[in-house]
């Protein structure tokens, strides 16, 4: 398991806080682990969480998530992918 | 004597718009021609499990299936185990999804194709408390009439309306407002099921005014929190869960349109409505009545073949008005999906290694929590066993393992004790 970057840790803190994931330490979320689904190692998030994440990200980073956008779909794969997506969109704005 | 028939599209004008696809408007004429062509290409069988997520494809599939004399099965979830159980339960059934080939259409018919009024157009399912989902058969006539009635209540003075819906077409609420509003009541539906606030804005922007937004409290709350600017909307309709008067008021201010709530059920479709920021009283649709006999409350309507027993706790104000005191505590409704707590608990108990357990809804929570006695299993293993059978939004969170459940002397589980154990 690779270590979190500073951006990934900040995003992990936002996820834990906005989703009320009690018992999960932001620093302990593996950057490459799945966010959604029930496979081993996944954070086990679902569609309602996705809506909360979109709100939190638009409020904190000013980045808009859309479901018909392939980049958004890929970004939900892991903390690392989501963080990269947010940083890229932020720079692009 | 020939059985009576109804048109596929009421007040058919071949050039009127019926739907909005990604590539632009689709006319009623094109839709009718495509549906007739697809009907010829469908597999043999009696039932099509219509899982199409694209609303246009769903409508096309639904119409083609009916024109072919078959019936649409509309499961509450597209989880693989749910679909497999339907295929087993209904011999001669097959699955229809977005990957179906749309036949190249023939000539646009001058008149609307017709469907037998009594044809079982769709069978909707509610999760029963015993495990097997309960089937509710809908005739073409009832689906068309219910939509026409509701359309008159909500938008009596507007001729053509463009509909954007955040709910799936397989759910009774979505079926009535986004599919049958188009077929029966001169509306045109956008093909997508927008999810994020930005999706909803884009879908609304893709259709001209007047616009009708069909949604749920979860989507509307997100829309409100996002502060996103929407194109002008004529009316917003919410259903599936209670909308607070506070949120309704905020939405009306922010969007400049009235917000109406629908009270309905899978058995009957929409039955009553209210403008949520003004009143907590539900007003029944025209030609519907509510009455109570020996503690059982029922609603009847001229277009319904039988009276509907109301599962919720209600206070009747008049033959046409009532107030909800409490919702049926067993039923969970989230974002247009529904599940029964007792059914979910049965599924939990069926997991090998689970000795005892319960799912319940903590006060104010959007999703259920679970307490489980399963000494040999990890919490994540239990969730993985449930996942293929249960829609993700109903997977319990948290799911907590306990040594035993706090059953009282009657074997019941008092809510306060469950909450204590969950918090400990």
TrEMBL record, chain A:
Record protein name field: Acyl carrier protein
Occurrences of domain Carrier (ranges): 5-90
Top-level taxon in the UniProt lineage: Bacteria
NCBIfam families per record: PRK09184.1
Source organism of this protein record: Stenotrophobium rhamnosiphilum
Entry-linked Pfam families: PP-binding
InterPro entries documented for this protein: ACP-like_sf (IPR036736), PP-bd_ACP (IPR009081)
UniProtKB/TrEMBL annotation, chain B:
SUPFAM superfamilies linked: Acetyl-CoA synthetase-like
Keyword Electron transport: no
Pfam families per UniProt: AMP-binding
Alphabetical UniProt keywords: Ligase
Domain AMP-dependent synthetase/ligase: 108-274
GO MF term set: ligase activity
Full protein name: AMP-ligase
Source organism: Stenotrophobium rhamnosiphilum
Lineage of origin: Bacteria, Pseudomonadati, Pseudomonadota, Gammaproteobacteria, Nevskiales
């Amino acid at each position: 398991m690779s270590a979190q970057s500073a951006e990934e840790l900040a995003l992990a803190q936002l996820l834990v806080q906005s989703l009320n994931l009690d018992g999960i330490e932001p620093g302990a979320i593996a950057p490459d682990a799945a966010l959604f689904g029930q496979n081993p190692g996944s954070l086990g998030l679902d569609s309602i969480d996705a809506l909360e994440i979109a709100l939190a990200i638009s409020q904190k980073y000013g980045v808009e998530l859309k479901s018909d956008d392939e980049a958004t779909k890929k970004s939900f794969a892991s903390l690392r992918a989501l963080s990269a997506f947010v940083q890229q969109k932020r720079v692009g704005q | 004597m020939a059985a009576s028939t109804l048109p596929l599209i009421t007040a058919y004008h071949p050039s009127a718009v019926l739907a909005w696809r990604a590539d632009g408007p689709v006319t009623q004429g094109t839709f009718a021609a495509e549906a007739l062509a697809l009907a010829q290409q469908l597999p043999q069988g009696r039932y099509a499990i219509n899982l199409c997520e694209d609303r246009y494809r769903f409508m096309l599939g639904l119409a083609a299936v009916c024109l072919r004399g078959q019936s649409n099965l509309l499961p509450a979830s597209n989880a693989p185990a749910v679909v497999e159980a339907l295929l087993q339960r209904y011999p001669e059934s097959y699955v229809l999804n977005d990957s179906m080939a749309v036949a190249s259409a023939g000539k646009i018919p001058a008149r609307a194709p017709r469907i037998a009024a009594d044809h079982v157009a769709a069978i909707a399912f509610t999760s029963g408390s015993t495990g097997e989902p309960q089937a509710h058969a809908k005739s073409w006539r009832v689906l068309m009439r219910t939509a026409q009635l509701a359309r008159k209540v909500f938008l009596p003075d507007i001729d053509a309306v463009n509909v954007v819906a955040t709910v799936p077409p397989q759910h009774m609420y979505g079926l009535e407002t986004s599919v049958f509003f188009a077929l029966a009541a001169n509306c045109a539906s956008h093909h997508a099921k927008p999810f994020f606030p930005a999706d909803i804005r884009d879908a609304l922007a893709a259709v001209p005014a007047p616009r009708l937004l069909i949604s749920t409290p979860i989507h509307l709350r997100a829309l409100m929190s996002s502060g996103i600017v929407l194109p002008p909307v004529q009316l917003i309709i919410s259903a599936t869960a209670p909308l607070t008067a506070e949120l309704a008021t905020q939405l009306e201010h922010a969007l400049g349109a009235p917000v109406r709530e629908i009270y309905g059920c899978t058995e009957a479709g929409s039955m009553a409505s209210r403008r949520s920021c003004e009143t907590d009283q539900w007003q029944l649709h025209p030609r519907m009545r509510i009455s109570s006999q020996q503690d059982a409350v029922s609603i009847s309507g001229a277009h319904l073949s039988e009276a509907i027993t109301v599962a919720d706790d209600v206070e009747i104000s008049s033959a046409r008005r009532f107030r909800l005191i409490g919702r049926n505590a067993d039923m969970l409704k989230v974002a247009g999906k529904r599940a029964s707590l007792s059914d979910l608990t049965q599924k939990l108990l069926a997991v090998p290694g689970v000795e005892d357990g319960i799912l319940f809804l903590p006060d104010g929570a959007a999703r259920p929590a679970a307490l489980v006695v399963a000494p040999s299993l990890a919490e994540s293993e239990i969730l993985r066993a449930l996942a293929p059978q249960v829609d993700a939004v109903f997977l319990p969170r948290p799911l907590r393992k306990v040594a035993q459940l706090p059953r009282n002397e009657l074997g019941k589980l008092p809510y306060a004790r469950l909450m204590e154990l969950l918090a400990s």
